[in-house]
Write a structure and sequence with these properties.
The protein is of the alpha/beta class. Helices cover 42% and strands 12% of the residues. The protein has a 9-stranded parallel sheet with strand order 2-1-9-8-7-6-5-4-3. The longest helix has 18 residues. The structure holds 3-hydroxy-3-methylglutaryl-coenzyme A and magnesium ion. Magnesium ion binds next to loops.
Length: 317
C-alpha cells in the first residue's frame, strides 16, 4: 500500500458504452456522438465510444461503427483542458468484432473476460479459457494493425450467478490478459458489491501478477461503495479509473447491477485530494444534465444534484 497520492489520474469515461448499453431504448447515433463530444469538451481524454458485439444481444450498441467513425472524423481538440489527442476505446468480444472496429478506425480495442465461469457463459457464451483463446486471436490482429489493447476482468468482487469470487481467480485472469499483451487491465466490480476490504484483498492478489501502473479500477455503484473503492485502490497505486457521466450504466447480463461510479463524483473526489484529472466539473455536470434530459430523468449522482442545487441557489456551498 502506498501512502502518497499520484499528482494526476486518468479517468476513462465509459458512459457512451457501459452507460448506455443497459438503457431500455437505444439512443440514436447522433445523440451518442453528441454525448461523446460533450465529454471531450469537458476535458476527458479517454472516452469508450461503443461495442462491436452482437446487435441481437445488445441492440443499444448497434451503430457503434458509425459513432466511432463520426467522432474520429472531427478535429482533435486544440485548446484548453481538452488540448491533445483523445483515445476512443471500443469493446470487441472476438475477431469478428475486432475487424469491424478496425474498419471503423478504432485505435484502441478492449477485450472483456470474467473471473466467473457462469458470468462468462452468460455474457459472451463461452468459458473463460475459450474467451482467452478468442482474445489471443484479437491480440495478434491488434498487434499486426498497431491497435492498442485493453482488457477487462468482470466480477472481481462477486458474481450475480456464483456469489463470492476468490481474489486468486481474478489474479489468474488478469495475468492471462497481461500475457496476451493488454496494455491496461480494468478490474470490473460488475455488480458493485465490493467494499474497501474486499477490493484490497482482490488488489493484493492481482498486484502479485500485474503492476499497479497497468491496472484500472471499474467500479459499479450498486451499494454506494464505488467512491470508497476508488479511494482504497488509490492507496495501492492504481491511477486509472473508469466512470460514467451521471452514474449511468449496468450490464445486460448482470441482473440488479446499477450504474458505474459517476464521473462527476470522481472529479469531486480528486479535486478535493488535489489530484489532477484535466476534467472541468461544471462542464461535466452540464453533460450529466444533458444526457439525463435525453433519457428522460434527472442525473442520478449526488455531486450533479448538489452542483445543480447550488446553481439554482438552493445550497450555500
Ligand atoms: P454468440 O451468439 O455466442 O456467437 O456470440 P456466435 O459466434 O455463434 O455468433 C452468433 C451470431 O452473432 C452470428 O450472427 C454472428 O455473426 C454474430 P447470425 O449468424 O446469428 O446472424 N456475431 C457478431 N455480430 C456482431 N459483432 C460481433 C459478433 N460475433 C458474433 N462481434 C458474442 C458471441 C460475444 C458476440 C455475443 O455473446 C455477444 O455479443 N455478447 C454481448 C456481450 C456484451 O456486450 N456484454 C456487455 C458488455 S461487458 C460489460 O458490461 C462488463 C464491463 O463493463 C466490465 C464490468 O463492469 O465488469 C466491460
Ligand atoms: Mg461495467
Amino acid at each position: 500500500m502506498t501512502t502518497s497520492w499520484p499528482a494526476a489520474v486518468r479517468i476513462v469515461e465509459v458512459g457512451p458504452r457501459d452507460g448506455l448499453q443497459n438503457e431500455p431504448f437505444p439512443l440514436p447515433v447522433v445523440a451518442r456522438v453528441e454525448l461523446i463530444l460533450r465529454l471531450v469538451g469537458a476535458g476527458l481524454k479517454s472516452v469508450e465510444a461503443g461495442a462491436f458485439v452482437s446487435p441481437k444481444r445488445v441492440p443499444q450498441m448497434d451503430g457503434s461503427a458509425a459513432v466511432l467513425a463520426r467522432v474520429l472524423a472531427g478535429p482533435p481538440p486544440t485548446t484548453g483542458a481538452t488540448a491533445g489527442a483523445v483515445d476512443y476505446p471500443v469493446l470487441v468480444p472476438n475477431l469478428q468484432g475486432f475487424e469491424a472496429a478496425l474498419a471503423a478506425g478504432a485505435q484502441t480495442v478492449a477485450v472483456f473476460a470474467a473471473a466467473s465461469e457462469t458470468f462468462s457463459r452468460h455474457n459472451i457464451h463461452c468459458s473463460i479459457a475459450e474467451s482467452l483463446e478468442r482474445f489471443r486471436a484479437v491480440a495478434g490482429a491488434a498487434r499486426a494493425a498497431g491497435v492498442k489493447l485493453r482488457g477487462y476482468v468482470s466480477c472481481v468482487a462477486g458474481c450475480p450467478y456464483e456469489g463470492a469470487i476468490v481474489p486468486q481467480a481474478v489474479a489468474r485472469v488478469a495475468a492471462a490478459l497481461l500475457a496476451l499483451g493488454c496494455e491496461e487491465i480494468s478490474l470490473g466490480d460488475t455488480i458493485g458489491c465490493g467494499t474497501p476490504a474486499s477490493i484490497r484483498r482482490m488488489l493484493e492478489a492481482v498486484l502479485r501478477e500485474v503492476p499497479a501502473e497497468r491496472l484500472a479500477g471499474h467500479y459499479h455503484d450498486t451499494y454506494g461503495m464505488a467512491v470508497a473503492n476508488v479511494y482504497a485502490s488509490l492507496e495501492f497505486g492504481v491511477a486509472v479509473f473508469d466512470a460514467a457521466v451521471g452514474g449511468l450504466g449496468g450490464c445486460p447480463y448482470a441482473p440488479g447491477a446499477s450504474g458505474n461510479v459517476a464521473t462527476e463524483e470522481l472529479v469531486w473526489l480528486f479535486d478535493g485530494l488535489g489530484i489532477a484529472t484535466g476534467v472541468d466539473l461544471e462542464a461535466l455536470v452540464d453533460t450529466a444534465l444533458w444526457i439525463g434530459n435525453r433519457l428522460g430523468r434527472t442525473p442520478g449522482s449526488r455531486v450533479a444534484r448538489a452542483v445543480l442545487a447550488r446553481r439554482a441557489g438552493g445550497s450555500g456551498n
